[in-house]
């Protein structure tokens, strides 16, 4: 669409340089020519036109503009030839200062090489992003993007860059305050810093940082929009000997935000604390405070979606919970054919690779060992490639529509290698009941729902539980895999409209496990 400003630019170009009787089209005249083909001196309007139409103009400075073709060429190599892309970016940096080239070089390494867990490369990436952030001449689009990429790296790198993370956050908040407050979320910046200091047990530093940040926001008439910042401040003060009462007062003055609205944030904080060797009793203190403010449902249940008014219990049984007996016929049939399903699953475990269709739990989850899953149906959709290698299982579930057509459910084989531990893991919603059919269960498997419900997993038997409750699953066997079939059912109290609700597309990959 031609904007009003571009129309004015076209008219200005015409009346300024056109001497012939021919009219210009939408494209500007070639350099040095008029619309009628007569040669005139280039007055810069064509360059202005090109800058305005250039798709990467927001990432390109005046200094970088003469090198835009070289930058674009290097960008084109990022996906299929990262080594070539990095070489071209280095060549550009030999000739000109270019934050766009530094940022793109770091992203290229991040996309292609960070999975190799090469510490040297990870440090190079962090150095490049840090350089861009600390260059006050860098375009906002570049340095703000660099900050968000660094947040991802810090999240995944555990303890490797904790000093660098605090340095960057303090720099943005206290040395580049105006730019940071305009480009980034103030709540996010402050909570990231206080959280980073908290999980490193630098409680007094965290309290001072919050108070300094609070003064900066007051000077600019900015208010925190999230209670999470104050929550962090409160639990930080409670860790300082002579400020515990003050911390309690802060926490008691926080208005509850509604069940589960901050569950995923609390869960992230807890995961980080575990990575920094917090004891479970310390983590429980955090969860208790979050539960009082309804940031989570309870210590045992922390879904990000909590539907009120439906039956809410950790473990379900065909014998005692009549609501789920509607599925009794299908589950009985499943138990009858379980040896065939076991055979299909065991054949698949001979090659547990991504290429074969297996997914491995993300490295930043609270998992020790190897936990992999083979998706057959995901959120109401059949995985045709995977089902071609597990035909009997998929043929059964094709007819068991309550499970295979459930928009919030998955059906999959799940395998825990010897010694694998899954701690305090849970699903995103209390609308989902999960069932496990034991296929290969070695001696010494521990399965617990919440803190009080220990369940025996047995081969050829089905257990059903609420997927939103914390669960611990441990394969103590030193030599054998734990292999189960996992399938989901809607909570029987859901109405038809609620059953039809789907997860957002971008959230589905996070909820596969």
TrEMBL record:
**Domain called Aspartyl/asparaginy/proline hydroxylase: residue spans:** 338-491
Where does the secretion signal sit in this chain?
Answer: 1-20
Q: Write down a Pfam family by its short name.
A: Asp_Arg_Hydrox
Keywords noted in UniProt = Signal
* A GO MF label: peptidyl-aspartic acid 3-dioxygenase activity
Query: Key word Transcription regulation present in the record?
Result: no
Origin: domain of life:
Eukaryota
Q: Does the keyword Secreted apply?
A: no
Can you cite an annotated GO cellular component? endoplasmic reticulum
Q: Which family does it belong to?
A: Belongs to the aspartyl/asparaginyl beta-hydroxylase family.
Q: What is this protein called?
A: Aspartyl/asparaginy/proline hydroxylase domain-containing protein
- In which organism is this protein found? Lepeophtheirus salmonis (Salmon louse)
């Amino acid at each position: 669409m031609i904007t009003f400003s571009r129309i004015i630019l076209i008219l200005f170009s015409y009346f300024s340089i056109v001497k012939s009787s021919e009219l210009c089209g939408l494209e500007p005249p070639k350099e040095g020519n008029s619309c009628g083909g007569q040669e005139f001196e280039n007055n810069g309007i064509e360059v202005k036109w090109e800058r305005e139409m250039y798709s990467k103009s927001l990432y390109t400075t005046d200094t970088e503009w003469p090198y835009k073709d070289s930058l674009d060429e290097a960008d084109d190599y990022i996906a299929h030839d990262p080594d070539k892309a990095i070489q071209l970016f280095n060549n550009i940096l030999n000739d000109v200062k270019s934050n766009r080239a530094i940022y793109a070089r770091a992203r290229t390494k991040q996309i292609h090489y960070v999975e190799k867990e090469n510490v040297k490369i990870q440090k190079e990436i962090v150095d490049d992003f840090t350089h861009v952030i600390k260059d006050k001449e860098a375009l906002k689009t570049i340095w703000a993007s660099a900050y968000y990429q660094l947040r991802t790296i810090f999240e995944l790198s555990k303890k490797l860059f904790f000093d660098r993370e605090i340095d960057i956050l303090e720099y943005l908040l206290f040395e580049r305050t105006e730019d940071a407050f305009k480009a980034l979320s103030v709540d996010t910046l402050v909570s990231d810093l206080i959280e980073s200091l908290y999980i490193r047990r630098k409680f007094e530093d965290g309290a001072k940082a919050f108070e300094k940040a609070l003064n900066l926001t007051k000077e600019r008439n900015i208010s925190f929009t999230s209670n999470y910042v104050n929550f962090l401040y409160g639990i930080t003060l409670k860790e300082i000997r002579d400020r515990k009462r003050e911390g309690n007062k802060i926490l008691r003055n926080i208005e509850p935000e509604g069940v589960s609205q901050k569950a995923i944030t609390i869960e992230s904080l807890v995961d980080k604390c575990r990575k920094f060797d917090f004891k479970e009793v310390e983590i429980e203190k955090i969860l208790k405070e979050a539960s009082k403010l309804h940031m989570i449902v309870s210590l045992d249940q922390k879904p990000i979606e909590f539907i009120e008014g439906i039956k809410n219990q950790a473990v379900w049984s065909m014998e005692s919970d009549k609501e789920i007996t509607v599925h009794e016929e299908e589950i009985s049939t499943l138990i009858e054919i379980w040896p065939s399903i076991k055979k299909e699953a065991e054949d698949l475990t001979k090659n547990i690779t991504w290429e074969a269709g297996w997914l491995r739990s993300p490295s930043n989850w609270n998992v020790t060992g190897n936990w992999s899953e083979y998706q057959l149906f995901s959120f109401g959709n059949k995985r045709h490639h995977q089902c071609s290698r597990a035909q009997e299982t998929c043929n059964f579930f094709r007819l068991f529509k309550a499970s295979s057509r459930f928009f919030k459910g998955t059906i999959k084989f799940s395998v825990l290698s010897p010694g694998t531990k899954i701690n305090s893991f849970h699903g995103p919603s209390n609308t989902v009941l999960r069932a496990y059919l034991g296929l290969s269960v070695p001696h010494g498997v521990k399965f617990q729902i919440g803190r009080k419900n220990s369940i025996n997993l047995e081969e050829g038997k089905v257990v059903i539980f609420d997927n939103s409750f914390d669960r611990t699953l441990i394969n103590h066997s030193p030599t054998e895999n734990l292999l189960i079939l996992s399938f989901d059912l809607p909570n029987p109290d859901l109405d038809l409209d609620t059953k039809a609700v789907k997860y957002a597309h971008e959230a589905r990959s996070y909820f596969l496990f």
